[in-house]
């Protein structure tokens, strides 16, 4: 994935506008379909003049935040993402990260302790053995990456809502955040965290989750795009302060529904 915002001081206005148009044309952005609102109309709505690079960037961020609100509002906690049969699993399942497969972090499972923080009653860290004793769940779902590929895989673990219940999470809080063993970090909305298909997973296709797919654990959400699914989770926290995410902070949409 490429950062959407330019990191240089000279922002390439033309490509930013292309990104805005692209956002508008994505199926999940239907409500802002190009037939309903023009770029100019959106600029007026968001109070941006688009007269300089900085206002273009502010404009983009506002559009993205409006999209977050609309997507949260459209999200139906009872709607299930499709599931598939074993025969439909994509083999081999693709690896993806912001780095090469040779640089996958190696986490030592024996010493591993999952940190839990923020708005939870029980901040005690979890060993893998403790996590493996949680009620088990498994599903075969489609993982969709914004880079233009999708693949069907089989993940096993525990319903994330069950984990949140065990740690006494304040489920009226807005966000659940994740810190990973690489420099990755993510955050999700609470309704998605509690969705019945959101699993904290420890296995892939019946085997211990291999390093490339996120050992020791990956949060697997078939209702969200690939980049929202953190691998190599080291810490989970509940908060009302927007935690952002690795790609979100580079201009991607935060809600990231699929
Ligand atoms: N820790 C971490 N999690 C991550 C990423 C990453 O680079 N680091 N990449 C994300 C992206 S963009 C995708 S598509 C999926 C890829 O998961 P896979 O390797 O199991 O296919 O992981 C997501 N979670
Ligand atoms: Mo991705």
The CATH architecture of the largest domain comes to: Alpha-Beta Complex
Radius of gyration: 19 Å
What distance separates the N and C termini? 17 Å
Low-confidence stretches: 6-10, 29-35
Percent in strands: 15-25%
Main sheet overview: 5 strands, antiparallel
Number of strands: 9
Domain unit count: 2
| The CATH topology of the largest domain | Sulfite Oxidase, Chain A, domain 2
Order of helices and strands: HHHEHEEHEEHEEEE
Mean pLDDT: 89
Task: Please sum up the structure shown.
The protein is of the alpha+beta class. 22% of the residues lie in helices and 21% in strands. The chain is built from six helices and nine strands; from the N terminus they run H-H-H-E-H-E-E-H-E-E-H-E-E-E-E.
Fold and architecture overview:
The chain is α+β, with helices and mostly antiparallel strands and 258 residues long. It is globular, with a radius of gyration of 19 Å. The strands form 2 sheets. Strands 2, 3, 6, 7 and 8 form a 5-stranded antiparallel β-sheet that branches. It contains 6 helices and 9 strands. 22% of the residues lie in helices and 21% in strands. About 5% of the residues have low confidence. Strand 4 and strand 5 form a beta hairpin. It folds into 2 domains: 62 residues; 165 residues, Alpha-Beta Complex (Sulfite Oxidase, Chain A, domain 2), CATH 3.90.420.10. Helix 1 packs parallel to helix 3. The structure holds the ligand Nc1nc2c(c(=O)[nH]1)N[C@H]1C(S)=C(S)[C@@H](COP(=O)(O)O)O[C@H]1N2 and molybdenum atom. Molybdenum atom binds next to loops. This is Molybdopterin-binding oxidoreductase.
């Amino acid at each position: 994935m490429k950062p959407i915002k330019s990191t240089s001081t000279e922002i390439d206005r033309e490509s930013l506008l292309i990104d805005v148009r692209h956002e508008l044309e994505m199926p999940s952005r239907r409500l802002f379909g190009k037939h309903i609102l023009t770029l100019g109309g959106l600029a007026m709505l968001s109070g941006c003049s688009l007269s300089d690079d900085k206002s273009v960037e502010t404009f983009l961020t506002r559009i993205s935040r409006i999209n977050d609100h609309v997507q949260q509002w459209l999200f139906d906690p009872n709607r299930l993402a499709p599931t598939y049969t074993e025969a439909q699993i994509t083999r081999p399942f693709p690896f993806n990260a912001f780095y090469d497969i040779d640089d996958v972090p190696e986490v030592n499972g024996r010493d591993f302790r999952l940190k839990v923080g923020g708005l939870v009653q029980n901040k005690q860290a979890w060993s893998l053995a403790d996590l493996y004793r949680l009620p088990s769940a498994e599903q075969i779902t489609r993982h969709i990456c914004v880079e233009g590929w999708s693949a069907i895989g089989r993940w096993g673990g525990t319903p994330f809502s069950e984990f949140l219940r065990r740690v006494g999470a304040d489920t009226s809080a807005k966000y659940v955040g994740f810190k990973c063993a690489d420099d990755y970090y993510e955050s999700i909305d609470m309704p998605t965290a509690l969705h019945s298909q959101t699993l904290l997973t420890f296995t892939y296709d019946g085997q211990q989750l291999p390093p490339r797919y996120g050992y020791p654990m990956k949060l697997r959400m078939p209702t969200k795009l690939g980049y929202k699914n953190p691998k190599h989770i080291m810490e989970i926290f509940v908060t009302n302060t927007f935690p952002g995410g690795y790609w979100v902070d580079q201009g991607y949409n935060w809600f990231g529904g699929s």
